Request: fold
Amino acid sequence: MPIDAAKALAADPRSGEIRWERRDVQLYHLGIGAGRPATDPDELRYTLESRLHVLPSFATVAGAGSPGVISGLSMPGVDVDLAKVLHGGQSLTLHRPIPVAGTATATGRIAAVYDKGKAAVLVMRTEVADADGPLWTNDAQIFVRGEGGWGGDRGPATRLDPPSGEPDRTVERGIREDQALLYRLSGDYNPLHADPEFAKLAGFDRPILHGLCTYGITLKAVVDTLLAGDVSRVRSYATRFAGVVYPGETLRIRMWHAPDSTRVAVSAVERDDAPVLADTIVEHS
Reply:
């Protein structure tokens, strides 16, 4: 069996040093659509070094190493075809605001392996700390088609009840045709997002946008729209990737706001509001 759950769970954690600079933060922000309009004071907080703050979702690419999905596939007990892999979900817990430049230790391990019948789900957990203590914890849910059915633990239910009532705010964000090409420069070079032939092998008509790019675009919309642009208010952020986004499409981002959390649903406008992100929640102060 390509996934040996016992071996994957028993493997020693992998630790390594990661570094990032202002340029990495700026590139990430551009990769999720920041800087439009280029001279907007609110956008300059994402692009101009003298005003720079860090959107918490930068944690998914900090250090420009392999994202959780790719690193999870290189762990002991995991040997699967990349064309069968999808990013199923992502959760992020912030322990304090991310500095605009830093050096930290990232420790990764397979925290769980679930048998969903027709697929397997791996949970790749990455914990990051610097000299001052913990910074963030990332969980990437890795969905591997065709690798389930061994009779293992199905895992906890993760679906949330739909938000009630009309959303408090709805915004739309256009995706550039070259958005995936720009975003991948932050470290995720999976050919699914750039190579038309590889995308066809994976069952898509053309390259798709990185799920984590949509993840970042969505968090930025929540911060800018409901949190007065204050990135330090974000405590955690979790989503399930419910569908794909193609570069050139428009995202419709619906938000249901409460004092300590915001529920979010994201869809693709041009495809009759096809779901893109579901079971999405931003916890904040």
Q: What stands out?
A: The helical segments are 5-10, 22-31, 41-47, 68-72, 179-183, 196-201, 211-226.
